[in-house]
Amino acid sequence: MAVTELWLVRHGESVGNVAATRAQVEGLDVIPLDLRDADVPLSAAGEQQARALGEWLSGHRAEIDAYWVSPYLRARQTLAVGLGDERPGPEPIVVDERLRDRELGILDLLTMRGVEKFHPEEMERRRHLGKLYHRPPGGESWADVALRLRSFLRDALSGPEERAMIVAHDAVVMLLLYVLLPLDETELLDFAAAHTVDNASVTHVRLTETGWEIVEFSSVGHLEREGAPVTEHAGSPDVQPE
């Protein structure tokens, strides 16, 4: 058997999301966050979102044969809170480092204003190379993330599970769609510009006779039903082309 159905979940709102958005709004150069990206936890709102995801899971657990999760704390917390005290029985929970968030290298913890101030050359490189291929020194491009996701999918989609959930990050969700559908560079960038992967949202994709297709993108109905906040923070701060 092979995997034919996937639910892609972005982690709940993190304290890093809150700090990054606040720093951008306040015009700061540096995001005030004294944590490794891997250790950033959920915010109070993110925990509420994870509990709402748990309500969704309570009605879908029989449909999910396996859970794969990023090693980063905010993703593991989202899944742990969502599953609650009831373990999913025989279904495996696999932590895979290939599902981690994109690494930003020298741009880590900088706002766009900070990048312009401290690394203006990266703004020019980004304009020239584009979002898919721009790799900050010490970091990753979207193409680099896609490469490790191709490796992950080669292992994961071979089964024996047929239906699985992946809990990770907004860039990971976008780039899984890029690889699975598949999309070309222009289609990916147009889609990413027009769509946001909300915190704790569920994106559902299914394998058909003609390939993978999106059943539902970034659904937050479970958050709205449970009275949890819907948040649309950008994930990792990024260098914009304009």
Defining key terms:
242 residues; alpha/beta; Rossmann fold; six-stranded mixed β-sheet; 39% helix; 14% strand
Cα distance, first to last residue?
46 Å
Low-confidence stretches: none
Tell me, briefly, the overall form. globular
Give the averaged pLDDT, no decimals: 93
Tell me the name of the CATH homologous superfamily: Phosphoglycerate mutase-like
Total individual domains = 1
Largest sheet entry: 6 strands, mixed
CATH architecture: 3-Layer(aba) Sandwich
What fraction of the residues are assigned to beta strands by DSSP?
A: 5-15%
Radius of gyration equals 18 Å
Q: Give the C-level CATH assignment.
A: Alpha Beta
Helical content (DSSP H or I, runs of 4+):
25-40%
Element string (H = helix, E = strand): EHHEHEHHHEHHEEH
Would you give an account of this structure?
With 242 residues, the protein is α/β, with parallel strands linked by helices. The protein has a single domain (5-225), classed as Phosphoglycerate mutase-like (Rossmann fold, 3-Layer(aba) Sandwich), CATH 3.40.50.1240. It is 39% helix and 14% strand. It has helices at residues 15-25, 44-58, 73-83, 112-118, 120-129, 142-156, 170-180, 185-194, 221-225, and strands at residues 5-10, 66-69, 93-95, 163-168, 202-208, 211-219. α2 (44-58) packs across α3 and α4 packs across α5 (120-129). The longest helix has 15 residues, at 44-58.
Quick structural gist:
The chain has 242 residues and is of the alpha/beta class. The chain is built from nine helices and six strands; from the N terminus they run E-H-H-E-H-E-H-H-H-E-H-H-E-E-H. Helix 2 crosses helix 3 (73-83).
